[in-house]
Structures are given as structure tokens and as C-alpha cells.
């Protein structure tokens, strides 16, 4: 019999070894260090595992970590766990244990009343088969510091930078919240997340600087400097800004490291026109990369919990194809009247359209509209049904810059 349950003190070693082998096999077997496992970073999240109750050994077959996040969807924060650290030793692979772990995790989320699941995949196609889908995109920039020197010429002297310690994280959090409020799926960071993940590194802690104007935090950078003299790089872990002026201030700050740093790397939302601001955009290497994946936990519970445009009554009946759980077996009828939604299961009803749970997830969070997906051949429905979905779920701008 397979059992899903929390990992306890006796499983710390197995969790560490599974994760180490799963994500850094090139490091070779590493002896378990309980002191390292006691690090505050490692205490964030809830550890879970699958166990064979008929085995004499009480070692898990596969493990994972749940972060109890809230994420912004349709203007409101909804409980949206972050799933990470899915790992198993090679002797337990290709036996369906990861699939079982994912299904049991979703059942736990459903029992908790969670609405969405987020994860950063090691491979998108692996998790797509279980119902998760790409939820956002971002621009990853690489450049020399001098490529950002244009910002110095456009910035006045009214603001100033200063270093920030972990106990002052709330000054950064106010900027983060202001920027995150503009993007769907942004994660509401906890105090512990700021202290132990943003301001804390594995070996060395990062630098953190805030740009203030009139005593008010307007932008910030959290970054690491790596390498040695002549070949140093700066990797920006986290940044946020309230407006274009603050973005220019951050760019000017980075440009001022041209005597120390050979290369910068940072990410921005796709709607931030950095290349349009630059004097020579060809000096900015820009790669479009995928963000995390998203999945509805239970559409019947999630759809009526969302905010909708206030309009005349709209209704649609959906058949949701789900490869992992059975609570989407019956069609759902969503009705929205004057912005107030209701959703009911309608066994045996003829749906207006059938779609997989990953496709529905993309529509719901605003990453793709129904019209987008119809053009891509991923959604087959009459034009009036597509138009109804477009009105209920207009396009949004998802962006997740919190790694987990």
C-alpha cells in the first residue's frame, strides 16, 4: 500500500540525499549535514513523501516540498501552493511514483481550499502531461554594465542609493508589492521568505540596495558578485521598481559597476521596454524565457472564487479533461451575472466545449485568451463560446520572479 504523508525528523537525511542526487548529481554523494539542513532556508516549506507501507524500510519512495503561497489572480490573492523539490532515487523511478505524488499533493491542496498550483519545472513537457501549463514569460538580459550607461544621462540627482540589511526588508517589500500588484500570479511574500530567501544565500549573503527619493523607497536590487578579477559577473537575484524613473535609477546603478564587472544578468517582465530605452539595444542580449507553470486545483471551487467583469449574464458549460484526478469528470456550468459567479457540476450535460485542465488554467490566469488558443488549434469551440470566454477571462500579464 502506498501512503502519502509529511516527512518527520527521521527522514531529513533521505530528503537531503534525494534532492542532492536529483538536482546536483555532478557533486557526487554528499554526507548528510544536519547543521546545513537546519539552515533557515531549508526550514521554509512543508516536506512530503510517498511510502510503501509494506516495506521494512521506512524510507520514502519520492519526496517533494510545498510552499504555502498566495498568488494574485484576477485582482485578488488566492491560495496557490508552490510545488518544488520533487525528487526520487534512481531505484524508484519509472514506477509511477511521481505521478502518484502529484495526485496526492493536489488532493491535499483541495482539502486545504487551495485554488492554483505553481511549479518551476525541470522540463516543461514532463509536467504538461499531468495538467500543468506554462503560465508566464520573462525577458532574461545579459550585457556589459556600459550598455546601461544611457540611464545616467536621463536621471536627475534627486534620489540616492543606500545599502539595506535584512531587518529593513519592509522597505523593499513596499516596492515589491507595488510592482507585483501589476502582474498576475505574483506571489505575496511572507516575512520569513524575505529574511531567509531574499536576503540569505547558501555560502554568502547577497548585496541589497534601495533607491530612495524624498525618503520613500522607489526601487531596489538584490544581487551577487561572482568570479575573480578580470572576469567578474553580477547576477541580480531580485529587483523591483515603482516607475520608469526608478528603473532608470537601477540601470544607472548597475552601469556604475563598469570598472569592476564584465557581465550583468537580470530578468524583467516582457512589458518593460528596456531595449526601447537603451541608446544601443544591440548591446543588450535579450532572451525570452518561460516562467513557472500553473494548474487549477479544482475548477468547480476555483471558478466561483474569482472576480469577473461586471456585465450582462454570461454562461458556459465546460468539460475539463484531467489526466491526474477524477474530480473534473463531470462537466461544469459557470454562470456570471453582474460580476457574480456561480458554478455547478452538471453530470451528463452536453458541454459547450471540451478542453484540458492546462489550457483552462492558462485562460483563467490570463496568460492566453480563448481566442489565442483557438488560433493555435488548442481550443475547438464555436465562435460565440470563444467570445464568451474572452469576455469572462480577458488577457492579463502574469509574471513570477520568485524562485522556489
Descriptors for this entry?
Nonspecific Lipid-transfer Protein, Chain A; seven-stranded mixed β-sheet; 3 domains; alpha+beta; Aminopeptidase; 404 residues; globular; 13 helices; single chain
Descriptive overview:
Helix content is 26%, strand content 29%. It is globular. It folds into three domains: 118 residues, Gcn5-related N-acetyltransferase (GNAT) (Aminopeptidase, 3-Layer(aba) Sandwich), CATH 3.40.630; 153 residues, Gcn5-related N-acetyltransferase (GNAT) (Aminopeptidase), CATH 3.40.630.30; 97 residues, Nonspecific Lipid-transfer Protein, Chain A (2-Layer Sandwich), CATH 3.30.1050.10. Strand 4 and strand 5 form a beta hairpin. The chain is built from 13 helices and 20 strands. The strands form four sheets. The protein has a seven-stranded mixed sheet, sandwiched between helices. The protein has a seven-stranded mixed sheet with strand order 10-11-12-13-14-9-15. It has a four-stranded mixed sheet with strand order 19-18-17-20. It is α+β, with helices and mostly antiparallel strands. The longest helix is centred in the N-terminal third of the chain and has 16 residues.
